[in-house]
Request: fold
Amino acid sequence: MGSDGELAAASTQMEEAMNELNQALGLATFRTVDAMSEVLQSIVGNGEFLVSNATLIEERTAAIQDNTTTIIDQNQELASNQKAMTDIQQETLQKLGEYFGQVEIAPKPLESPPEPISTVPFNRDPEFINRATLLDVVNKRLAKLHSDEKDTNSRSRVAFVGLGGVGKSQLAIECSYRIREQSPDTWVFWVYASNTARFEQSYWEIANRAKITGRDDPQVNIFKLVCDWLQDAKNKNWVLILDNVDDVSILQAPISVNKETQVKNGNGAFKQSLSTFIPQVQHGLLILTTRSRSVASKLVNDSDIIAVNPMDKSQASALMEEKLGMQANKENVLELIEALEFMPLAIVQAAAYIKCRAPRFSVPQYLETLQKNDHKTARLLNYEAGHRQRDWEAKNSILITWQLSFDYIRKTRPSAADLLSLMSFFDRQGIPEDLLHDVKAQKDASGSDDDSIADYDSDDEFEDDIMTLRDYSFISMSQDAKVFEMHRLVQLSTRTWLETSGQIERWKELFIEKLYNGFPSGEYEDWGKCQLLFSHVKSAMSQQPNSEESLQKWASLLNQGLSYALDRGIMIDIEPMAVKAMKAYKKVFGAEHPDTLMSMGSLAATFWRLGRFPEAEMLAVQVAETSKRIHGAEHPDTLTWMSNLAAILSDSGRLQEAERLKAQVVETSKRVLGEDHPDTLGRMRNLALTFSSLGRDLEAEALEMQVLEAQKRVLGEEHPHVLITLNNLAVMFLNQGRFLEAKVLEEKVLEARRRVLGEEHPHTLNTSNNLAVAFWNLGQFPESEALQTQVLETRKRVLGEDHPETLISMSNLASALSHLDRLPEAEVLQMQVLETRKRILGEEHPDTLLSMGEQAFTLLSLGQSLEAHTLQVQVVEAQKRILGEEHPNTLTSMNNLASTCWKLDRFLEAEALHVQILETRKMVLGEDHPDTLTSMDNLAFVFRDLGRLPEAKALETQVLQARMAKIGGNHSDTLESTADL
Reply:
């Protein structure tokens, strides 16, 4: 028998040996963990590198999974070695005991079960923004979980589903803390479900933290062990959170009972899918977060899927303000969160970027950079800031987050990734299904041999692709199931992903090809389809391709869109559209190619419609002169450009120059094309309008009648061109005061246009408007107001509320109401027209200035003479600067100003203005022009008020004689002159 001292020494020696072995094993484990951390840090620390090298992401991710698996294996091996050492220790001590007869080995004491705890690895976010409606569903399930009466039909699973970065995990974290607050006796377990290795690691943590019996067994199936424990009702209530279950293959991963069994049975006879080890019991609640609706449906009922969408405006604003932690202008914040589409991760990312660069960087600067171009936006949204409430595997950049999902879709369903690639170039809303089919046909036509483009010949395949993209919330359907929508940032992320992989040009060219083939010519009959596609043409403006063939189609597409926009009165963004088309044509064909000249002519027309007459004239002159030099003065194209230039001169108020040029074009056109050619007849009609504007009504009428007879003979009685001429003739009758003749002719034209063109064609509405004017002048005020109101409502519906012709209708109706002494109604309409023109056309567009003049007239009628005078002075000064002192609009405004001066008893100012107007009109329009005669009449009134009766009578006599000779004794103006004398 050994002594007690000898036994103690032997035991001490044995313990020291065991400690050395444990330290060695622990050091090996920590070195493995450190090695894995270095790999992770090298990846996480360089977000831009991840974006630029998708292949390396996959390799590194695989390495992470391998290292994680290695740790788990080594943990199991460590446990096995520790058990072996324990067995050796027990065996040695038993032998020592037998030898000394004094040692008894006590059995290992049983562990006492711990109180329920939480394994959630994140601190609570003190800046969490409550999204109550989303958490309500979970709260209701928890109430049932803690109810004494268990409902056997109660559903015990819910899933948060939405885009990456939309806040699913943050909701789950907040849920976990609320659960523990409300019910401290409820277990809350967090499981990383992004891959099998992390899933297993999380189950090991549950086993250790809950001290589950059997976890020390080196051959234990940890999945079955934890699942069995969770299913046991004795273990009270629990909540299991599976975070980032994005890959369906994780749920289908085969799990063996243990290694020994697997070897014995071969071929994995005892393998089960991982999903079988996710329990479903009445005393437990499963909360799932995933980007994929289809993955969620594998674990929960469709009715238990909670769609997590971007925040609403108030939530997003609160989040930005919390994360910024500084004062910022609320309007700037709202504008920024709207640009970020209310995406929580993007907002947190932006706030971190601004905060770390403050005060040298602000919210407006971030917004300005964000809106510059794709490259600048991508750079901002690739920024990765620390986010304590996100897993280390999850990316803190919204773009990288989504691009990882794109990579997954590219692997599992390439055709869906192709569809997403194409859709990323459209406008984010109103993406039509009919332009998304037949990608294979487009590929063959382009000669591409890239087999990765999806074959959409099968409707079933297309539907599967749509379902895949909807599952991941990358696209959504509008109210029309054949029209799709996307988040703008998803589109940007997709294009950035394509650029990184060198595929962006191919998909950009395919997008242009499909839109080029799908966009109609722009005729009235096609306006419906043009309207649906126009936003996508605007989107194409920023997608200039590199290849010459695609560049030509791109330029043509922009030009078609521009033509439609000009017809529809769409003024926003038309100038850059025209400029880009012209530059592209120059690059492809050179500066003097017919298509290039055509695009320059379109730009001139754009300037013209924008009221920028000097720029329009300069460009139109350049086009006409170039065409003369290349094709000759009598070439049809040259005649077209000269005719367009004449129209610009006419609208610029240079009527004499316009008349000379139009007459020259008409004579050349007759000689080259023939007197009955449609182009010749159209140019004669335009010349007649100029005669009318110059007050040469008899010449204008004679020329219109000549055109009318030729058109009837060549084109037929009801050809649209014939109806245009008839309408012009009726307008001339109106200008001449022949209101009854005008009414009869307008009614005839209106009936024909309704039959030939339809009730809502712009030309039909124009005739209705003219007929309303005839009614008004004939004293048929109710009929006039009713027709003007009808025209206005139809133009609003057909052309849009902002179309120039709609605004003309509103202005006409306002004038009618004003003359009926319904001044408040008139003022409201006039203000609406004025504000719309300011917004669309600018403060100093000629049409805007006309509206300001009309507003001044209404103020005058309301007795606000001083306010009217101030506004009229402003209008006159602007028109002199923009249109020139001799423009008809300027002279009309000066005449109105003179009348206001007269009402204010400022007779000398009124006289000076009237004299200036009269002299200018004599010079520009001629002595017997109706407007000149009106000026003489107005000056005569001033002379009367100044007591200069002989001068007044002389002027009035001259006016009467001129009117008798020009328009006859029965005209209303002539009768008024007679009464004045």
